[in-house]
Amino acid sequence: MNKLTKILIGGGGTGGHIFPAIAIANRFKEILSDVDILFVGATDRMEMERVPAAGYSIKGLWISGLQRSLSLKNLLFPFKLLYSLLKVGAIIRAFKPNLVIGVGGYSSGPVVYMASRKKIPTLIQEQNSYAGITNKLLAKRVDKICVAYDNMERFFPKDKMVLTGNPVRKDILDISQKKPEALKHFKLSSDKPVILVIGGSLGARTINESIINNIEKLVKSDVQVLWQSGKSFDANAHKSTLEKYAAIHLQPFINKMDLAYAAADIIISRAGAISVSELCIIGKPLILVPSPNVAEDHQTKNAMALVDKQAAILVKDIDAKEKLIDEAIRLINDKNLQHNLSEAIVKLAKKDAAKEIVEEALKLIA
């Protein structure tokens, strides 16, 4: 394509929506010499910081979702929606996109809906194994639906769907040679196995409490724990306990996730869509503790997509304080189980998701 190609991307709210959107945008820039990409997000959500930090322009909408409980905030929803539809209409008229992509989240709906009304080619990307409300509503209007899991026909028209997987960070695509660097970076010993614990940037209270309540059991099992606690975890409240154990390496947030994955022998994680996609590529033995505090319990459904194929172990959030550490110790001592889990999970990995999504998008433009 010689002429300028204009791509409008709507969505956000969480890293699980924002990261795939940025990865898709980056792929467009890699393969098109002349492309202009504009994002649309919700004014009070994290995309307003993350997208500009990645080098892209973004317009904000006054939009939010319906509260699941009775709330006065729901009275504002019709006004926010009408305002957002009008503003998106103005953005589309000014920007004149060749293609509109929705990645889920509050702002995705108005953007894709208005584009479909104006007969602009549209594509949505669904990260989870259980489709979000916005994407389910948009499915009949869009031209193409990129999904990350099998068996999504119960949500979307089969003739519109293509299985692409979820885009992941480039630096994790090959960590096979990074273990020595990783051990040095985190000051870990090469003589003891490493359990990596990740609960997301905000942490996971149940996982954190499971570690604190069973910390002596962990240390006695002769392992090291690289633990991303999240910023909400009060490390000072447990300072005297943590200082006693050199094998517990606590960090509020891990920036070098490629090295953290490389250091790990087994991994304990929540089951967000992007995390699960990354963990399939990493291929390490995995224990998933799905968060119960998400819409439609979609993290449990993401986890079961792996568990049903013997590619991960599931510990329910309600059982974690009692069972999680025992399960981790059992896994770290069972090399055969580790091998079987790794062998199964790498079969589910999709490394070229961003490339495949962009290829589908370009077909729509052509």
Structure description:
Helix content is 42%, strand content 16%. With 366 residues, it is of the alpha/beta class. It folds into two domains: 5-168 and 352-365, Glycogen Phosphorylase B (Rossmann fold); 171-346, Glycogen Phosphorylase B (Rossmann fold, 3-Layer(aba) Sandwich), CATH 3.40.50. Helix 1 crosses helix 15 (353-365) and helix 6 (179-185) crosses helix 10 (257-263). It is globular. The model has no long low-confidence stretch (mean pLDDT 92).
Write a concise keyword list for the protein shown above:
366 residues; alpha/beta; Rossmann fold; 2 domains; 42% helix; globular
Structural class: alpha/beta
CATH topology of the largest domain: Rossmann fold
Q: Could you estimate the helical fraction of the residues in percent?
A: 40-55%
Q: What oligomeric assembly is this protein in?
A: single chain
Global shape: globular
Q: Characterize the largest beta sheet: strand count, sense, and whether it forms a barrel.
A: 7 strands, parallel
**Whole-number count of domains:** 2
Strand order of the biggest β-sheet:
3-2-1-4-5-6-7
Mean pLDDT reading? 92
Number of helices in the DSSP assignment: 15
CATH homologous superfamily title of the largest domain? Glycogen Phosphorylase B
Assess the beta-strand content as a share of residues: 15-25%
